[in-house]
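Tokens for chain A. Residues wanted.
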């Protein structure tokens, strides 16, 4: 089997979580940079990474990296790439996205146009064709320029991996599935511990927790653009990855996960999303205000994405809201609290300093993942269930 390098992008600040995921799949991590992890694997890694990775936005097959400070250099270096090793003669190919940071070449449209022309020239020479109908499989390219270093990757995912396929209905400010999964994985929560999200919105954090607890792979119920790449990836590799994912699911998994929200319509949407994800039996959703947050058991987890106050009128309500969060902490004093917010005064109004504060970029928005771990539960004696 051939060996390739893959680039898996992620939210800035979550590289360590993604690195661990990749290593757990058995692949060698080559490089960890801001917002991405590069790893090595064979053709089957395309299937397994797309199906199993919870915290990456997509999986790129790295085809080249070179320096270019002029458009002539970009053209010639792109033309020198052995595209015939990746693209069949009927391939539909284009540069779907180009971004440039601190580089001499900075126009995305010019970069896209010139690279497409260079690819066509290479393909014409190799396939002895003057015209390409592009009626076959789709091969979108993503190109990044950083300090004049051009990195070229074929997008094996297509639609972003945060689109698991279950979230048909969303709340006003939903958290992405990949970010929700990463936040859960940053905590010590596991399937035998209670979990509550008092601001669950459309249910993303509870649903992702249920999928983690039941070992349901995030890519189980969707398709990927590279499934069309039959010249490179045998169909049996996809079947094997899906079979592997199916074998790992814990049927009839018993979990204690609750999702609350003050908006009844949003709770209805969350229930529908959980049903589409196949985890509705594992989560209890209820219309409830954070002020009413209570739980009969000790040593549980609150993992949540409370309102940030993006609008001015909403900001005025934040001090009282975060004071209320602080009050629930006092009531559930054996519980661990983990919350992501861009609200700079969160700790001030909660009335407590976080043990850890991790900076995470949610798109262009700087957020903080405040971590308030509670006491560890006492160890069970052998005779306890």
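Reply:
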């Amino acid at each position: 089997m051939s060996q390739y390098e893959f680039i898996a992008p992620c939210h800035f600040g979550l590289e360590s979580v993604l690195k661990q995921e990749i290593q757990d799949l058995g692949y060698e991590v080559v490089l960890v940079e801001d917002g991405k992890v590069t790893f090595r694997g064979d053709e089957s890694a395309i299937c397994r990474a797309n199906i199993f990775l919870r915290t990456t936005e997509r999986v790129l097959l790295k085809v080249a990296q070179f320096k270019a400070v002029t458009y002539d250099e970009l053209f010639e270096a792109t033309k020198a790439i052995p595209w015939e090793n990746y693209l069949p003669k009927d391939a539909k190919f284009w540069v779907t996205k180009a971004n440039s940071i601190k580089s001499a070449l900075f126009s995305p449209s010019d970069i896209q146009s010139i690279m497409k022309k260079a690819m066509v020239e290479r393909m014409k020479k190799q396939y002895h064709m003057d015209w390409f109908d592009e009626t076959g499989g789709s091969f979108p390219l993503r190109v990044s320029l950083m300090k004049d270093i051009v990195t070229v990757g074929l997008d094996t995912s297509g639609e972003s991996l945060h689109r698991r396929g279950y979230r048909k209905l969303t709340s006003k400010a939903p958290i992405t599935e990949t970010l929700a999964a990463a936040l859960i994985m940053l905590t010590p929560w596991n399937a035998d511990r209670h979990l509550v999200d008092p601001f669950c919105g459309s249910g993303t954090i509870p649903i992702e927790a249920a999928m983690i607890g039941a070992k349901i792979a995030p890519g189980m119920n969707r398709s990927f653009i590279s499934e069309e790449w039959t010249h490179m990836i045998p169909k049996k590799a996809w079947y094997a990855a899906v079979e592997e994912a199916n074998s790992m699911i814990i049927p009839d998994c018993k979990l204690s996960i609750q999702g609350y929200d003050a908006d009844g319509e949003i709770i209805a949407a969350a229930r529908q999303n959980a049903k589409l994800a196949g985890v509705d039996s594992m989560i209890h959703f209820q219309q409830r205000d954070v002020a009413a947050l209570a739980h009969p058991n000790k040593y549980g987890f609150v993992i949540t994405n409370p309102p940030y106050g993006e609008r001015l009128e909403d900001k005025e309500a934040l001090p009282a809201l975060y004071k209320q969060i602080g009050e629930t902490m006092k009531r559930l004093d054996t519980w661990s609290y983990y919350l992501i917010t861009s609200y700079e005064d969160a700790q001030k109004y909660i009335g407590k300093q976080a043990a850890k504060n991790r900076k995470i970029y949610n798109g262009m928005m700087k957020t903080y993942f405040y971590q308030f771990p509670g006491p560890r539960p006492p160890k069970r004696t052998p005779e306890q269930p």
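The chain has two domains: 4-155, 177-216+233-372. Residues 4-155 form a domain with the VC0802-like fold (CATH 3.30.2130.30).
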